[in-house]
Amino acid sequence: MSTPPSSQTTQEFFPSPSPALSLSLAGIFRDGAKAAAAAEVAAAAENMEVEDGEEASVGGGGSGGRREGTVEISSTENSGELRSSRSDDEFVETEDHDGGGEDQGEGKKKKRRKKYHRHTTEQIRAMENLFKEYPHPDEYQRQKLSSELGLHPRQVKFWFQNRRTQIKQQQGRHENALLKTELDKAREENKALREALSKRCCPACNSSLAQELEEEKQLRAENARLRTELEKMMNAVGKITSEEVDQRSTLHFFNGIFGLSQPEAMALVSQGLEELKFMAVSGEPMWVRSLETGREILNYEEYKKTFPFRNLISLYGKGRYLEASRATGIVFSDLPRLVQSFLDANQWQSMFPSMIAKAAVLNLVAPGEGPMKDGVAQLMFAELQMLTPMVPTREVYFVRHAKQLSPEKWAIVDVSLDKIEITIDVAQIKCRKRGSGCIIEDQLNGHCKVTWLENIELQQSTVHHLFRPLLNSGMAFGANRWLANLKQSCERLVFSMATNVPTKDSIVSPNLVFDFLKDDKHRNEWDAMASGSPAQSIVNLAKGQNRGNAVSIQTIKNGSIWVLQESCTNSQESMVVYAAVDNMAMESVMAGGDSSNVSLLASGFSILPDGVESRRLLNTSKPDDKSTEGGSLVTYAFEVLEKNLYAPQPAAETVELVNSVMSSTLQKIKAGLNCTNE
């Protein structure tokens, strides 16, 4: 090894001819001591192999510790060959041109002249093929490939290193290009949104939001003006006795709103009224009694012959069918109150809370006469429901017409028109009424005889198989259910105003499921709040002749929990609704305090018949029991307070808890009723 240079001069170190090591330093040593140390390190690294993909680096240079270059170490076999920095198919070879021999005393050396060897096409192709399969070949693979191609193993090694570096750079450039493209798109979208926000313009329809708001204000003002004119016209119509002037005024109003003229609309309503009166009193062959169930069934062929102008199913496409039913009963109410309840949307909805989800009076078709509005016709909307998510709701638009047939008889008829309003597409309506309604006869003793007729044209829809028999039987939205709910509502209204209603419970014979759920003696068998503790009823207020229609307060766990429960039942359906309440708040309400301050989280059950026809009992403990009802469809609703009120969806833990409580409750009810899963 030659003598190290002084600290004032800069030298490049070359490998000695023998035996040993080739060392090239790209950096500049400004300190003699550091140069000597670097030479010793290079000598100690003799016969040392550089790991695949790594290069030995030595930091040289000034006092700042900045990296000046790299040191490449090779064995004596490769003393004349260095790694190329140009491309992956070039290799550098250096030669010593001393000329006058080595003179270490003078401290001068002549530089070698570099030669670049480019790999042949066959060599590159062979290395490319191996690179596709093995990007990181081992020592054996490099030795084998170098012998086949006539290259040195380190040439092969450096070529693979350079190739991997090139691929990484290409991938990086490609990813950068993709990211740049996405960034440009995001910038363009952001720019467009900012422009739309500044211009208050909707990107979808390219219309000005400010202009739409201004148009909406104008429409609201126009609607307010029309309402004012309508009120003035109605007041004027009430004062005018001339029928001709009355009809002309109503016609002018009606033509301004509907696609049909007022005479055309009233003609259709009159046809529906005649249809209602005929079908309410007719027997066979229009109505045929079923031998299996005993229910009346509409003879559709006879219906088409009697009312050919109503055969409009083909006009609205295939998949439509008629659903008709009829029922008669006595209700506990006077005639004027019933008529008023049918004409007021809010009262009508409150009269049938389990059947009507929404109700509204949209427009007035024809005004009525007198205090009971004889002859009034109004356009209405209703959304009919069952208390289960398995059956879709029915939305229906219809004109309701109230007509006095005799001093003691009124008719309330509902008819859907072919043309309702410009904003309503009749073709999309899946439910239409044909001459439906009721005929009310005053019995002069606080009771009325009601004949209810339901004649609905429907679009076929998919229904859960459990509820299909119930719908096919007509019990879901049929006349029997409407009449049963009407009886229950009238009884509730009468009992709410009565002062001589007994508050103690008496023995009744309700439906088995309904009786099990409402009874405080069985609450500990299914209610999760009870946790097996017995319940006790401390208050029971009746709401009808049937003891099942009542409001009660039950205590659980020795009075620590109060449960407010309401139970309702009729011949078609039953409900049990309950909620845990604060005992102090309930005591305040019972003493005459404000009930609006009591917070409730209501849960409960809806109980419906399954629609399966009644069958005769083969073995019964009671000799007078000749038949029994079919199965029951129980829908359970459970309400719980979510911790995070602003979360878009309930937490998974809450959903899991609710599912667990509801499943456990239903299983306990089945066990309490000795039900088996079949």
Walkthrough of the structure:
The structure is a single chain. Strand 14 and strand 15 form a beta hairpin. The longest helix is centred in the first third of the chain and has 47 residues. The termini are far apart. This protein has 15 helices and 23 strands. With about 675 residues, the chain is α+β, with helices and mostly antiparallel strands. It has three domains: about 150 residues, Homeodomain-like (Arc Repressor Mutant, subunit A), CATH 1.10.10.60; about 230 residues, 2-Layer Sandwich (Alpha-D-Glucose-1,6-Bisphosphate, Chain A, domain 4); about 170 residues, Alpha-D-Glucose-1,6-Bisphosphate, Chain A, domain 4, CATH 3.30.530. Strands 8, 9, 10, 11, 12, 13, 14 and 15 form an eight-stranded antiparallel beta sheet that branches. A six-stranded antiparallel beta sheet has the order 16-17-18-19-20-23. It has a three-stranded antiparallel beta sheet with strand order 3-4-5, with no helix packed on it. The N terminus is likely disordered.
